[in-house]
Structure formats: C-alpha cells, structure tokens
Amino acid sequence: METGRPHSQAPQRETPPKAVIRIRDLHKRFGENHVLRGFDLTLYEKENLVVMGKSGSGKSVMIKCLVGLMEPDEGMVEVLGQDLATLDRQELDRLRSDIGFLFQGSALYDSMTVRENLEFPLRRHREKLGHFTDTLPLVTEALESVGLAHAIDLMPEELSGGMKRRVALARALILKPKLILYDEPTSGLDPITSKEIIGLMRSIQGKYGTASLIITHDVDCARVIAERILLLVDGINYAEGSYGELSQSTDPKVEAFFKK
Amino acid sequence: MDYLENIWVRIITFLRETGELAEFSGRFFREAFRPPFEFREFLRQCYQMGNRSLMLVLITGFIIGLVLTLQSRPTLIEFGAESWMPNMVGISIVREIGPVITALICAGRIASGIGAELGSMRVTEQIDAMEVSGTNPFNYLVVTRVMATTLMLPLLVIFGDLIALYGSALVEYFKGAMSFRLYFNSVFDALSFGDFIPATVKSFFFGFVIGLVGCYKGYYCKKGTAGVGKAANSAVVMASLLVFFVDFMAVFISDIFYEL
Amino acid sequence: MATTTSQYVRLGFFVIAGSLLLLAMAYLIGNDQNIFRPTFRITSVFKNVNGLQEGNNVRYSGINVGTVEAIVMENDTSIRVTMAIGEDMLRHIKGNAIAMVGSDGLVGSMLINILPGEGPGQPIRDGDEISSFSRITTQDMLTTLNVTNENAALLTEDLLEVTRALRKGSGVLGKLLNDSLLAGDLKESFHNLKISTDQSRQAVTRLNHMIGQWRLEESALTLLMDDPAFADQLRGVAARLDSSGREINDLTQRLNGLVGGLQDGEGTLGLLLRDTAMAAEIRHGLKHLDSGLVKFDQNMEALQHNFLTRGYFRKLERERERERRAEEKNR
Predict the structure, then answer these.
(1) What's the Cα-to-Cα distance from C215 to each of A197, C144, C289, rounded to whole Å?
(2) Window 64-83 of A, Cβ < 8 Å to B
(3) In chain A, what residues touch B121 (CB-CB under 8 Å)?
(4) Which one, out of A73, B21, C21, C75, has a CA that is 20 to 30 A from the CA of C210?
(5) Do C204 and C146 contact (CB within 8 A), yes or no?
C-alpha cells in the first residue's frame, strides 16, 4: 500500500525504514477535557511499539483516531502512507482491511458463532480470499494460528475470557494485515493467560512480519514484548526508549510507571 | 432556583433528543438507499421480530377481544343493542385497539430488545469492530432492524386483530348464541376501507417508530452496564409515547381526509 | 445465532399467512362495498334524505344490492343521490321502480330501499333516474297507526277488566282507595291514558288531513292513493282508531268519577279489618284486581307494588290477635 509519495519529513537516519504510522501534533478534546495535546508517534515497518499511559490518558482515543473511529480535532494522522483526513469512505474501508484491530474486551459478535465472527471481515473484502472460493480455509488457518481450531462452531458465550481474546486475535489476523493495533491485549486476563496471549502476539509478528502498536498499562506485558516504549503522559509523548532505558529513569513521572 | 434549573435541563434534554432522533431518522433514510443491503441480517431480524412476537401478540389479542366483549355486553344488552356487538367490537379493534395494543406490546418487547442489544454492542465495542472490518454498522444493524419492524408490525397487527375478533366471537357464541358466520358477516359489514386502510398505514408508522427508537437509544448508548439498562428502559418509554403520538397524528390526519 | 433453514421457513410461513390474511380482510371489507364487483349507476332525486350518507346500503326488496355513491344538492329543494348497484341486478330492476330512504331497524343506519313499481316496466340502464318517495310514507304511517290501534284495543280491554273488578269489590276497594297514594297512582294512570288517547286522536286528525290533501294534490303520492282499496284501508284504520280512542276517553272519565266518589266515602280500614272474614274477602278482591291489572303497562306497576300492603294487613291482624289475647289474660 505504499504510495511512494516523497516523504518531506523522512526520519534522519542512514537507512531510513519506512514509517507505517505517523502521528503529528494530535489534539483531541472532549468538552472541557483536553485529552491529547500535541501527541507525536512514528511506527516503522516490522517494529513493535508499546504505548503506555494511565487510564484516561487518551491511549484509546489515539488508537481510534488511527482507524478513523474518531476524528482528531487537530493534527495529522498518516497510516500506511495515507493521510486519513483525505480519504473518503471507500478508501478508508480499503485501508482498514490492511489493519488488524484487537479490541479491549475482544468485541466478539455475541449473536454469531466463532466461524461467523471470523467470516465477518471477509464479507466486504472478498479480494482477500485470494484463490479460495470459500472462507473456510482462511477461517481454519486463522484459528489454527491461535490454537483454537476446535472452537469453530461455538458461540462466544461458551468461550472463556482467554479464548475470546484469541478468537478476536484470529479475527484481526484473517485479512492478513500489515499492521495490528492492540488495545489493552491483556486487560481482564489472569497472568498466565496474559502470557499466552503475549506469546501469540510475538509468534504472529514473527510469522507474518507485521508491525504492531500495543496500548497497555501492564508493565509486564510491555517488558516482554516491547522493542520500544513510548510513555503518554499529560496528552503528549512524554518519554521514549527501550524498557531498560526507561526503567532506569529518575524522572518521577516515568518512575511512577515502573515502581512496584 | 434548583427546581427551575431542573425544568430547564429537562426541556433542553427533550429538545436535544427530538433533534437527535430526527437526525437519526434522516440518517436512516440516507443509508437505507445506499448499497449494500444486508438481506440476510434483515431476514434474521424479521424472524426475530415477527415470529418471536407472534405468540405474545396472539395471546394478548385474544384476551383483549374476550374482555372487551364481556365488558360491553351488559351495557349493550341494557340498550337492547346486543346484535350491534360485532359492529362495535369490530370497528374498535380494527381501527384502534388492535394496532395500538400490538404496537405497545412490540414497544415493550422489540424496542427494549433492540435497545439492549445495540447498547451492549456499543459498550463492548462490537459496533466499532464492525466499522473497522469494513461493514457499515448503521447499514448492518440499524437499517435492517428498522425495516424489519416497519414491515413486520402490520402483519402482527392483522394477526392480533383477527385473534381479538375471534375471542370476541367466542363470547358471543357461548353467551349470546350468535353464530360465527353471523358475527363475522356483521363485522365485515360494519367495516369499510376508511377503517381498514388508515389503521394499516398507521401500523407501518408504529413499526418504524419502534425500530427507530430502539436503534437510536442503543446506538448512542452511554458506556457501562448501567448505560445498557438505561438504553433499553428509555427505548420502551420513548417508543410507547411516540406510538401514542403517531396514533394521535394518524387519527387527526385520517379525520381530515374523511371530511374531504 | 445463525439463521437456519427452518427459521427461514417459519418466517416465510409467517409473512405469507399475514399477507394472505391482510388481503382476505381487504377483500371481505371491499366485497361489501361492491369494490370488486362490476357495478352500474342509477340516480334518484329526493327532497329530504334524512341523514343518508355516502356508503350507506341500497336494498332492492330487502336484499343488499349496492351502496350510495354520491349525494349532491341540486337546488334548494332537491338532492340527487347516485347509487352503485351490482351489475347482476341490472335485469331485475325496472325503470318504474321507486327509491325511498329508510332506516335499518330502530337505531340502524340509513339506507335506500328500492321497491319494484306496479306493473311491467322498461328494464333499467346505466345512468337512469328512477322516481323517489319521501320519508314520511303512508306505509310507515299505516304501520304506526296499526300498532297504536292495537295498543288502544288492549288498553280498553284492560280497563274494562279493571272496572269490572272494581265494581265487584267496590265496598272493599272503596276503603282501600282512601290510601291517597294508591289513588294518586291510579289517577296518574288515567291521566296518562287520557294523554295517549288525545295523541292518537290528533294523529288520526292529521292523517285525515293528509288524506284530504293528497286527494287534492297531483303529487307522486297520488300514485298510491289512486288505488281505492288502499285509501279505504287507510280510512278504515283511522276510523277504528278514532272510535277506540273515544271509548278510552269515556272510560277514563267514568273511572275518574268512581275514584273521586270513593275517596269521599267514609269509614276506616281498621274498622273494616276487625272482621277477619272481611279481611279474607279483601285479599280475594285484591287478587282479582291483580290479575286484571297485570297487563296494564308501566304506570300500573306502582299499583302492583302497593299490593305489598297485604303484608301490612297481616301485621295489623297479628296486632289484633295480640290485643285479644291480652284481653283474655286480663279477664
């Protein structure tokens, strides 16, 4: 989906990797509450980036701006080389088919079976079927990659929290996205299940070579998975670095995240 | 002072809701004519709303017919007008009681159901998930449901009308020794298209209002479990009120046409 | 919750059944209004349609054959009514048929009755006009008068019976009628009777007057009046009513006199009742009176009610008994 448009503000590196997501000066207000006040973020190909912040710090708002579920008040959001503000509905839908989104509470459709849940994104994106004429091979493949092939005909209410999260992950994967956004992937799960999910996230990244943007407030999750961590404090990208760098920081606002 | 402010807030809320509902129905008409039409989901909703409400409508209709006849018998007998029972019951059921009672039952059953369903989908981000997977949730959820209620309600009203007339005929048969044939002959003799057509047209609007209010309340549900309960509850209240309002308008308008 | 085939089948059944019922209902309602039947139109001009409305039924010799389609005021005195009649009636209705406004029962809606005319006539065609007949018809009048006459005859009979009973037990009743309430009731009945007699006599006068007028007038009504047998019949009814009315009046006056006389009569009930044999006779007399009066309509109900005073008599008797026993003890 790279348009090959010349990047005027290309990162100053020797071999500049392609940016998958570029956010510049993002602002979002809810009435009196000024949540994002000039947030910047860049995510490169095949990289995974963890954004950490307290509840209500605007992490979810930011990630929703990335897929057009919310519109920023100010600022530029560019995903896979396309500026979201310039897209019409169809172009936005086409762009979204290259993005996988794992919602906080799994967001499985209660009234559908696991199979129908996974088929749902394929309804509007038949081109992703490739040479298959049926959805079943794709559904099975996605379910196998999360280890739940046997659950294909179950209803979401028959699944445990961890299984739901895995099905949701399979649904995010089914369109073979170039980028996966995780909104609190481990929230509401016990530590063991969390580890399983994190393991899955890593194996998927290794298998498909996707870029990942992970939003979380779970330090353990960040430690295991993050190549780079970005702290969202007071509506701006307050600090950035690897887990090792940040956990040694003496800045009280940064320390607050990593203190036991 | 506090009291006045409270009233002011209520007025503002009322106006805002009216405006939002108008905007919502405008959006419904815009989206309804925009492809794709989600036919399978529409059929599923028709089944949910039509077949699943039928039993309730039949039972209530039957009892209403029975009770209406039993209650008015003594008065009619006093006037020696017992033979006018089919005419009176027939006209009142077809013109008013049948459509309104059916609509109120459906407001209770369907509007609250839709409100709760869409509300919980909103709260658990299922609606966002749909949007992200390239399916227009308004088209998929709202248009199909509103269409289904609009088309199913008149059919339910017909079933309700006939079962109510049957209940009434049963009373006349056992207590008044009036044959079924005479009863239904008198009913259809008394009825004219001027009774039947406005009532049927009215039923379509009842169905539309019920579906629309349920969807509106669910679609704009506030976060949290309490929000879902509130959406379901206020959907019933608002739908019932609007049914009466539409009824008033319908009677008013058909009266004007009758005069012409 | 996937939509299964059986759900589709059930939904299909529901929709088809509902639509069929809707159509059936529309058909049954429309059938009644001749909407799905080929029709033809005839018109008739009336002076007064007595609240007839568009959509009211049209009957031919008592069968529903169509509906009123339009009611148009033509000028200040004539109203043109257009009727849509089922085409199958085309060969039955003749050009000399007469349309009249009637009503369906006592509280029923208005309708148009088409009656076949006298003798053979031309077959009617679409758009023809047939003659009409006003609402106050001699037929109606005759029917009403006949009923009045019968009622009057019944009343006379009842009254005769009452008088007979009164005569028979006059002594007893004389005392009884000192009870002014009872007398009042009776008097009221007589008064009502008188009013009704007066009314029927007025009706007869009016009728006579009308007959006189019709004779002079060359109106559509002479059509009927030309039939001498009919006119005689009408006059016969009037004469009978007149005589029975006079009879009732006579009776009423006599009864009034009787009651007046009785009220003036002296003696008390108590005096009478000292004799138990006498009391039995009273009861016997009252029973007679009762049977005579049962048929005497509503106004007399009060009188019947007052016969409950029998209980009062019995109570009096018991008191007497107690007194007598007390006397015996004292002795």
Answers:
(1) 112, 21, 48
(2) 64, 67, 69
(3) 109-110
(4) C75
(5) no
For the stretch C222-232, what's the b/e string if a residue is b when 16 or more beta carbons lie within 10 angstroms of its beta carbon? eebbeeeeebe
Chain A adjacent subunits, 3+ CB pairs under 8 A: B, C
Which chain B positions have a beta carbon within 8 Å of A116's beta carbon?
none
Short-list C171, C194, C155, CA closest to C297:
C155
Domains, chain A, with CATH or none:
16-98+179-200+211-260 (3.40.50.300), 104-176 (no CATH)
Is residue C186 within 8 A of residue C296, CB to CB? The reply is no
**ipTM associated with this complex:** 0.81
Q: C158 and C124 in one domain?
A: no
Q: How far is CA A91 from the centre of its chain?
A: 20
pLDDT at C68: 85
pLDDT tens readout for residues A44-81: 888 888 888 887 788 888 888 888 888 888 888 888 88
Give the integer Cα–Cα distance in Å for B73 and B63.
15
Flag if C25 and B193 touch (Cβ within 8 Å). no
At C195, the amino acid letter reads I
Per-residue pLDDT of chain B in tens (260 residues, 90 and over written 9)? 678 888 988 888 888 888 989 999 999 998 888 878 888 889 989 998 888 899 999 999 999 999 999 999 988 888 877 778 888 899 999 999 999 999 999 999 999 999 999 999 998 889 888 888 888 888 889 999 999 999 999 999 999 999 999 999 999 888 877 788 888 888 888 888 888 888 999 999 999 999 999 999 999 888 777 888 899 999 999 999 999 999 999 888 888 877 65
Distance, in Å, from the CA atom of A164 to the CA atom of B129, rounded to the nearest integer, reads 14
Domain ranges of chain B: 2-259
Question: E strands of chain A, at which residues?
Answer: 19-30, 33-44, 48-52, 74-79, 82-83, 99-102, 179-183, 211-216, 228-233, 236-241
Q: Compute the nearest-CA separation of B196 from chain C (Å).
A: 8
Contact flag C30-B193 (C-beta cutoff 8 Å): yes
Helix axes C138-168, C228-264, angle to 10 degrees: 30
Identify the three-state secondary structure at position A215: strand
Which chain A residues are Cβ-neighbours of B128 within 8 angstroms?
A: 64, 69, 103, 107
Look up the pTM and report it: 0.67
Tens-place pLDDT, residues A17-42: 778 888 888 888 888 888 888 888 88
User: Which residues from chain C sit within 8 angstroms of residue B155, using beta carbons?
Assistant: 14-15, 18-19, 22
In Å, how far is B47's CA from the nearest CA of chain C?
Answer: 5
**Same-domain pairing of C180 and C67:** no
